[in-house]
Design brief:
Elements lengths: L4 H12 L9 H19 L5 E8 L5 E3 L7 E9 L9 E2 L2 H10 L5 E7 L2 E7 L7 E4 L12 E2 L6 E7 L9 E6 L8 E6 L15 E8 L5 E11 L2 E7 L11 E8 L4 E3 L9 E8 L6 E12 L2 E9 L3 E2 L5 E2 L8 E2 L9 H15 L3 H21 L25
Parallel strand pairs: 4-5
Antiparallel strand pairs: 1-19, 2-6, 3-19, 5-6, 7-18, 8-11, 9-10, 10-18, 11-17, 12-15, 12-18, 13-14, 13-17, 14-16, 20-21, 20-22
Helix pairs in contact: 1-4, 2-4, 4-5
């Protein structure tokens, strides 16, 4: 039988010597128990709080926004490969150190949690066996074989050039302008109809296309569509309306991901003879002439499954099994129920101390605080913390001592 909030409340009532709601309301008790369980989590940080998140890691992508997917993220615990491939351990590092190692091209498998601008990111540096295939680096108009050009008949793209100043990777990007009177089709198209043929059979329906686009002004920009196939009439196509993190496109560089599995097939393209790729930059009819759109670093990557273990801050579940951040009923079930039910004792003592403080009975509150700490220490001997410690390494500035990965 599960331990419920009611069991903690029974102990709380005993400690304060009052089961009525004259001085302490039912809501006051629930708030105190919620706070006490949160205190317990923060103190223990052990594997009874563990939860997991399955990450599709893509080579060349290091930052994964998990704000929504892992809304209950408290602390990192571990990052693991699939069972049969778990031949190495990922090292936990600070976001700053990991950013430096990513910049240096380190191949050490490591991870971190970075919180910025109200979002949480799982940062991963890993030399995956699923190395990304670079299809076009856009360092030249002939990147990937064949020639990249604008479609000046059916689109508004014009003046395609190599830009060695503003780029995301390598030595250059491709830069183009739009002239809305050129076609009136509300799109600018960059394409390569003579691409060196590629056999992408191993990537079909498994891989994701990843590329960088530069948008000078997103006011009227709506989406980007990618086409790839064995001819301009036999292809797959898919459209992205957000960046790789699901965020709205922004002025400047945007990283885009398109999954092959999500694409629409037109005619009968041959995945073993891909020699046509095209990009449509789409916008509304309100768009005006503009300059300096860019595209860079087109690659194809098959994800590697990684399992992220983390400490959750959900205090438990309701009777329907829904995760909750605070208790709303005595029938709610604390996170430790059925795993180590004796946690009700430090939780009840802490909740009693909180109630006594609300009643301005500070001596009684102090006694309960002491009892809570004692009960907690006993618990910590049984279930030690599973929080990972940050690994720090000494480095001489500007020198990388790590193995380089050549893409």
């Amino acid at each position: 039988m599960s331990i419920t909030v009611s069991n903690i409340q029974d102990l709380l009532n005993s400690h304060i010597g009052d089961s009525s709601t004259d001085r302490v309301t039912a809501n006051d008790r629930l708030r105190a128990i919620s706070e006490s369980v949160i205190w317990l989590q923060e103190k223990l940080e052990n594997d009874l709080q563990n939860a997991t998140y399955e990450l599709n890691y893509l080579d060349t992508i290091n930052y994964y926004k998990v704000t929504t997917a892992i809304a209950d993220l408290l602390e990192a615990a571990d990052l693991r490969r699939e069972k049969d491939l778990h031949t190495l351990s990922f090292t936990y590092k600070s976001p700053r150190e990991l950013a430096e190692e990513i910049g240096q091209g380190s191949g050490e498998s490591s991870y971190s949690i970075e919180r910025r601008d109200g979002d949480s990111f799982l940062v991963v540096n890993h030399g995956s066996e699923n190395t990304a295939k670079v299809v076009a680096d856009f360092d030249a108009l002939t990147a990937g074989g064949g020639t990249w050009a604008t479609d000046s008949t059916n689109s508004d793209a014009t003046n395609l050039t190599v830009d060695t100043v503003e780029k995301e990777q390598g030595n250059a990007s491709l830069n183009f302008d739009i002239d809305i009177s050129q076609s009136g089709n509300n799109k600018a198209t960059i394409q390569n109809t003579t691409l060196t043929s590629m056999d992408l059979s191993d990537y079909e329906d498994l891989a994701s296309w990843i590329f960088e686009i530069y948008i000078p002004d997103v006011t009227y920009f709506s989406s980007v569509t990618l086409y790839w196939g064995s001819s301009s009439t036999s292809y797959w196509s898919a459209t992205a309306t957000t960046d790789i993190d699901g965020s709205a496109f922004a002025d400047g560089w945007n990283k885009v991901k398109i999954n092959w599995a999500d694409a629409t097939e037109t005619s009968s393209p041959d995945e073993s003879a891909i020699d046509f790729i095209s990009f449509d930059f789409n916008y509304t009819a309100s768009q005006g002439d503009d300059t300096d759109y860019r595209i860079d670093y087109l690659r194809l990557a098959v994800p590697e499954k990684l399992t992220f273990h983390y400490l959750s801050w959900y205090v438990g579940t309701n009777t329907g099994g829904t995760d909750i951040l605070t208790f709303g009923a005595t029938t709610d079930i604390p996170y430790f129920s059925g795993q180590y039910d004796n946690y009700i004792y430090p939780a009840a003592h802490k909740a009693s101390a909180i109630v006594f403080k609300q009643l301005r009975l500070y001596d009684d509150a102090n006694i309960q605080e002491v009892d809570a700490e004692r009960a907690l220490r006993r618990a910590m001997k049984i279930h030690p913390s599973s929080k990972v410690e940050e690994i720090k390494s000494f480095k001489v500035s500007g020198i990388s001592f790590n193995r380089k990965i050549t893409r």
